[in-house]
TrEMBL record, chains A, B:
Mn(2+) binds at E111, D283. It comes from the Eukaryota. One of its GO terms (biological process) is enamel mineralization. Its main location: Golgi. The active site is at D263. Pfam families: Fam20C. Belongs to the FAM20 family. InterPro entries: FAM20, FAM20_C. It is found in: Golgi apparatus. This is FAM20 C-terminal domain-containing protein. It comes from Astatotilapia calliptera. The keyword Repeat does not apply. Transmembrane segments: none annotated.
Length: 393, 393
């Protein structure tokens, strides 16, 4: 099993950069090389040339099968490619510039295909590498879903709309009805395709309820929204009381604040890496819903714990400099996606919102530093030697 | 019962203009005077000064109660006023300029408060007088619904949205969910208020399935969509084989085509007037959904039967003249509604669509006249002397 699932050193003291990569096996399909490249500390190495091959594969390979993917509340499909590749498809459901209705709760918001794509790019640019590669693609809903699916529950929801477009809605908990159709124009539909992680039988994952999970209620507040000293409790609770778990959670909060994702109720880790491993940033479809407003509560973990990885802090500072402005490098990064030929994946207001929010994150860190001296968690030198004292940068 | 329910002559040969109106009883509230004024041939006399008093009453009277109204598929409320007045409330659910999604079927479309208001004005300008008076109003959802309702099923759907607006969604078949909230800004909401007809125990009504009813299916066509000679059958079928019922239906089709209402599955008549009476044009919330397109199939009754009332035809011709242009008189008429102070009730594209569609109706009549000589049904001289031969105008 280990051979199938990435480089793993017997003692993690060796550090991931000393592991011999097995991703150079040219005969493996790119999705398998991606699986083999997963380490204890990140999903992929950002310099690995396989990354581009993998997204190219998802964006261009012949689609062999399309069925509904169970789990979650909104419609998504599982797409099969030659050589056993698979991807999670999320369809475009609203025009790209549409902002989420101000009266909708985060748990009623649509999922957005471009949010999945943009989240992958943002996570990578932040140096996290914790989101499976996602790529955009224009697919033909007739020939690449309707005509080839073996999923009867899916196929019977296809219809031709009054405008002559081929539409479907699938079966799921929310927005799977003829009132919320997913439609081609008349056949072509923008979708996001996310690389599948190794099968759960090979690489089981553990799901963790986020301590800063929202109430998912119209009326109730979560404990962390009422108790400003909430982090004191979290800091004493395993697994947050040792290792990098707490600062990992704060990394995730920074990512989510930048893209305004309020839907991070759980996160996952690979079981075989135990508690000392990175957090997967899965399921980002509800990010990038609103550019005109920021949601400060997403930063609660940082604000309440006043702690951040040194590497993250340095990266954020870099991305706030004029030459490395986050909006500029995101714009440039997103042009690599095939769908950027149809229209920019994030509109300019969304890109500017990134810069505005980044400034706010740095402001929160500064406010923390004015009150505490253990804000910056030094993860840069020998990050894997267990807990250590935080050092102010 | 007769005294309570409008002027009714013993033999309808007398004609409605000879009936002594009982609507001048100054002590009656305006809604009762409206009920008393209903005749066999129309809901109200357009010159009756009570019309303005009635809409003023609905627009300004203190709201005593608000409960959900059962029946139908979308949310509507029953509003009570002093002196036993009642109105049917439909809330604003989308911005006024929004066009119906091209991929939505007519049976999935939202109901629009401004469509109810505009339909009343249009029906009146066409000389039909078959829609109960409707008026717009800005209401306070907190003090005029939430705080006074006795309807628990309604009141438990109230909530404050993330934007701080007071919202609710009620309980109904379609769009009654937190994903489709009706929201004040933060309390004030635009609604339409339609005068209620006399209670069914006093004035029972008969519901008729329209012969040109749509299939209400994503895939099936109705018989009239497949059979160009469909009208030949209808013409031989009671009650369409005598009196004005067929041309009444065609009047309704003209109204519906002008406002692009595809949702006329049934129509109603007052039972005590038998078959020789006007058709009520109730429930127009799905009109005015799209201005950029026309729906020729709505005109099928006119196109397939090639028959139209002379009075309707003359009115349509008048409204196509530059001095009496339909769009101009609709614009002017709608300014009488209180909500026109908030924003025009129909946007300019919707008003222009009226002129474009009117020209199409007249074109269909002309095409009919080129092929048939019994197109114009002369209803102007002694309309109530039973069936007669149609006369070309």
């Amino acid at each position: 099993m280990r051979a199938k699932f990435g480089p793993q050193s017997n003692s993690h003291e060796e550090g991931y950069d000393k592991v011999t990569w097995t991703t150079d096996v040219e005969t493996h399909p790119p999705w398998l090389r991606f699986h083999l490249g997963i380490s204890r500390w990140e999903l992929y190495n950002r310099k690995d040339p396989n990354l581009a091959q993998l997204t190219h594969y998802l964006a261009t390979q012949h689609i062999l099968g399309s069925v509904q993917k169970k789990g979650g509340t909104q419609l998504k499909l599982l797409i099969s490619f030659p050589n056993y590749g698979q991807a999670l498809l999320k369809p475009m459901k609203q025009t790209r510039h549409a902002e989420t209705d101000v009266n909708l709760f985060y748990f009623s918001d649509f999922e957005r295909h471009n949010a999945e794509i943009a989240a992958f790019h943002l996570d990578r640019l932040l140096g996290f590498n914790r989101i499976p590669p996602v790529v955009g693609r224009l697919i033909n809903v007739t020939t690449e879903i309707k005509e080839i699916t073996t999923d009867r529950r899916l196929s019977k929801t296809f219809f031709t709309s009054p405008a002559g477009n081929v539409c479907f809605y699938g079966q799921c908990e929310y927005y799977c009805s003829v009132e919320h159709p997913v439609c081609g124009q008349p056949h072509m539909l923008e979708v996001s395709l996310a690389t599948m992680l190794p099968d759960l039988t090979i690489a089981p994952r553990r799901s963790w309820r986020s301590p800063w999970r929202r109430s998912y209620s119209r009326t109730k507040l979560a404990q962390w929204e009422k108790d400003p000293a909430y982090c004191d409790t979290v800091k004493q609770t395993p697994p947050y009381n040792q290792g990098t778990r707490l600062v990992d959670l704060i990394d995730m909060a920074v990512l989510d604040f930048l893209m305004s994702n309020m839907d991070r109720h759980h996160y996952e880790t690979f079981e075989q890496f135990g508690n000392n491993t990175f957090l997967l940033h899965l399921d980002n479809g509800r990010a990038f819903g609103r550019h005109s407003q920021d949601e400060p509560s997403i930063l609660a973990p940082l604000q309440q714990c006043c702690r951040i990885r040194r590497s993250t802090f340095l990266r954020l500072r870099l991305l706030s400099l004029p030459d490395f402005r986050l909006s500029d490098i995101m714009r440039e990064s997103l042009t690599q996606d095939p769908l950027s030929r149809v229209a920019p994946l994030l509109s300019e207001p969304h890109l500017s919102a990134l810069d505005r929010r980044l400034a706010k994150v740095l402001q929160v860190v500064q406010t923390c530093q004015e009150k505490h001296d253990d804000v910056i968690y030094n993860d840069i030198e020998g990050h894997d030697q267990g807990p250590r004292s935080a050092v102010t940068a």
